[in-house]
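Design a sequence for this backbone.
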């Protein structure tokens, strides 16, 4: 059953990373588009008590389209769609005689998608822009696949995430830099606990503005108000009361003024019901300014 818990939080970590935005709006008619691959393999996880335990080696792979489009100079539409997701589990091998006790399995399909709208209260070029966003989580992915129903491509619930964003861009020596902060409340359905989320982000560019180095910290804290009681996750099909703090690092390099490549890594340094292994991402993007 913990395989369900682990995959759900891994998918949540992915969507947080891909849909992370600062308070800046896309100019009207302009946009940012990204095709990326995210993956992780892990054989350890944080338990509901925050300790680490071994588990059957599990892999999660997502190919995702992410897009931002400026509806107006203050309203940005956002889509995050994992159009191909894969969840795998290795064979369970006996430590006594080396025989396969349970054969490995895999499922493929759509992952859970997100659509969002972000409204920036301040005009383009403001020194400290402020924005609010609403993200709707669409349960498109399989939530109980495989022979034992323990492989997932989504969580099976429709959630609504409201976030506030603030940040600023500035000069640091000869380089452009920025910082951003987000705070959010995630309303979850189907008996899941609601969540408080926060994030910090900062970036600086090098190589004649072609290379951006970005650092992030993301966190999720449960309100423990779901149908599963606090501290009791063993009776839940899905992961309730999940928590983590996850730092990450990302590099974005512009091959041309609009086309670029990106690579990143992020993982939980502490948590409950989360994989004790980092996730990696690589992608190509088009920045239509």
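Sequence:
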């Amino acid at each position: 059953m913990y395989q369900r818990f682990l995959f759900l939080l891994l998918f949540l970590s992915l969507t947080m990373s891909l849909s992370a935005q600062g308070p800046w709006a896309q100019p009207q008619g302009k946009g940012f588009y990204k095709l990326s691959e995210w993956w992780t393999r892990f054989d350890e996880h944080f338990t509901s008590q925050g300790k680490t335990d071994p588990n059957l080696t599990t892999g999660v792979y997502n190919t995702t389209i992410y897009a931002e489009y400026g509806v107006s100079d203050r309203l940005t539409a956002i889509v995050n769609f994992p159009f191909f997701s894969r969840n795998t589990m290795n064979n369970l091998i006996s430590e006594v005689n080396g025989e396969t006790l349970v054969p490995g399995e895999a499922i493929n399909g759509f992952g859970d998608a997100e659509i969002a709208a972000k409204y920036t209260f301040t005009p383009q070029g403001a020194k400290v822009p402020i924005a609010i966003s609403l993200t709707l989580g669409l349960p498109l992915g399989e939530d109980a696949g495989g022979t034992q129903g323990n492989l997932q491509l989504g969580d099976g619930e429709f959630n609504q995430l409201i976030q506030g964003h603030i940040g600023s861009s500035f000069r640091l020596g000869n380089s452009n830099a920025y910082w951003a902060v987000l705070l959010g409340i995630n309303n979850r359905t189907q008996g899941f606990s609601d969540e408080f989320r926060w994030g910090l982000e900062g970036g600086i560019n090098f190589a004649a503005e072609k290379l951006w180095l970005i650092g992030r910290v993301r966190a999720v804290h449960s309100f423990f108000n779901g149908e599963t009681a606090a501290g009791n996750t063993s009776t839940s099909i899905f992961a309730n009361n999940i928590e983590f703090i996850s730092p990450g690092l990302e590099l974005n390099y512009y091959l041309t003024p609009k086309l670029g490549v990106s690579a990143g890594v992020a993982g939980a340094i502490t948590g409950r019901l989360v994989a004790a292994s980092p996730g990696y991402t690589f992608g190509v993007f088009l920045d239509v300014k």
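The longest strand covers residues 52-70.
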